[in-house]
Amino acid sequence: MIEIRLPDGSTLEVEEGTTVEEVAYEIGEGLGDDTVAGKLDGELVAKEQEIHNDGDLEIITEDHEEYIKVLRHSASHVFAQALKRLHPEAKLAIGPWTEDGFYYDVAGVELEEEDLEEIEEEMEDIVEEDLEIEREEVPRDEAEQFYEDNRFKQEVLEEEAEEGEKVSFYVQGDFRDLCKGPHVESTGDLEASKLLQIAGAYWRGEEDNQQLTRVYGTAFESGEELEEFMDQRRKAEERDHRRIGEEMDIFSINSTAGPGLPLYHPNGKKVLNELRDFIQDLNRDRGCEPVETPHLFKTELWKESGHYENYQDDMFLFEVQDEEFGLKPMNCPGHCLIYNHEAWSYRDLPVRYTEQGKVYRKEQRGELSGLSRVWSFTIDDGHLFVRPDQIDEEVEEIMENIFQVLETFGLDHQVMLATKPEDKYAGSDEIWDKAESQLENVLERMGIDYELEEGEGAFYGPKIDFAFEDALGREWDGPTVQLDFNMPDRFGLTYTGKDNEEKQPVMIHRALYGSYERFLMVLLEHFNGNFPTWLAPEQVRILPVSDENLDYAEKVKEELGGFRVEIEDRSWTVGKKIQAAHDDNVPYMLIVGDDEEENGTVAVRDRGENEEKGWEMEQFRQDLEEEVDERRIEPRILS
């Protein structure tokens, strides 16, 4: 007999080998009839899954929040069946569900975006046929014969089943696919699905492998939910940072220069400088000392830090005169070297270093996207070397800085406590337990609501992560606070305690933005290009009514020295000049004509289309200074 623990805390004893569905019938006949799948020890499994050990079990019905995953997984099979009907030569690879839908990787067929409509029509026919979806188990050798001309499925079979073992297929009509499941009962349950886009992907995510065609799609329980999703998607496309970045001349990524290596144009650098100055103000107030480290180190350093063992797959490594070097994926080892360059007393701690540090991570090319995922990015990095009794205070002050950043930009957020990874981690379980409990205590003491993310910590320590929620409700990784007992031990970092004995400091890693690239992406989409005045690449544009007013426009510009001001000197109508400034997301326009020149005033117009004439320049400059100095989110001079 084995013991099954249910969500309400109760337990149920059943015979080993009992299936998820049979457990559901043990609980109640109605629940058994409604069972679609199970969640066994946190993993979604088919209702036919046998249970052989004690464990936690949730029964998945159509009312369960996990049901959408089952529905989307089944939608990927309906897509695959439709594709095979239209293109029998297609070779299917894998087709899992995702957070927003599903994808299927395929080979042997050329697909374009315009082909999706025809495939969708075939999917609709399959749904209307209401085909029963049945699970069958066959010996591995039989499955290998079925897939004798499909090397992708052959590889999956080799990885997931031993010789002589049985594997599961799901069958719907004339279509069958190797799959563990779970799936819904019938294709007729898939009433609201949509194919979204085509992309390229490498088999198993490895660049050395064959490139496949990846078709993305989604599915919902109702047409209303699907339409809501598609409307949100359209809004997201309108706010796509790549489009806005190009229109505002913020950044570009040039294929000649290399993938995932953003080039910042003058407008983009102006925004980055403002973001940097804001962080430097916070660092200065916290007593942080700026440092700088090189872009690469010998791999001996990365071996000492633990990155070579735990992170080398994500590093750029190369040889120079028989010595191996690596571009830095993180700044922390360099900061450890700086700390170790001199002797410290307990009175000197905490020692706080900051660096606007460029780092490099070898993401898969198929995953690179604009500024959201790149090879080269800059972290507003900070590393603090503290005594154990200083941890709580330092973490709390970092958290207060992070909340100040979030408030300044008007960003909603989620807070997560990420704990020890299951496999790649450094240090003992005892050290990890101690570090996790200290971060948890800080969150509890500060009254911060948070979610637990088990296994999502860095390899060297647990962390408090923040996720931004933008104007469309999407979440993005952001600030982080990480507690590290391991790296100080690896580098032999010490300080002299009150008892004149050597002690080991604790290291706190922190970033208030996360990275400038990801943060800039969030801001571009959150503000839809309409940056707050203090952050805007161009804060004021002067619009002379005619060429005769250009000299006065130059005088107005001089009076606004210190701000980012341009003059629109093209021979356009005032209406066209206003429209161009609106299109360029300029916060303020100053319209100057004969009346303004005669009276020494300006007409002020904001991007909200409010306009007031007769402004004295001294008053406008004073109000503009106040708005910029206070880093207000919205222009308020005319409100």
Structure in a nutshell:
With 639 residues, the protein is an alpha+beta fold.
Describe this structure as you would to a colleague.
With 639 residues, the chain is of the alpha+beta class. It folds into 4 domains: 2-60, Roll (Ubiquitin-like (UB roll)), CATH 3.10.20; 67-238, Threonyl-tRNA Synthetase, Chain A, domain 2; 266-293 and 330-526, Bira Bifunctional Protein, Domain 2 (BirA Bifunctional Protein, domain 2, 2-Layer Sandwich); 540-629, Rossmann fold, CATH 3.40.50. It has 20 helices and 34 strands. A hairpin with a 2-residue loop joins strand 19 and strand 20 (323-327). Helix 3 (67-86) crosses helix 4.
Question: What's the CATH C level of the largest domain?
Answer: Alpha Beta
Mean pLDDT: 92
Judging by the overall fold, what is the CATH architecture of the largest domain? 2-Layer Sandwich
Shape: globular
What is the CATH superfamily of the largest domain?
A: Bira Bifunctional Protein, Domain 2
CATH topology of the largest domain: BirA Bifunctional Protein, domain 2
Low-confidence stretches at least 5 residues in length (pLDDT < 50)? Answer: none
Strand runs, count: 34
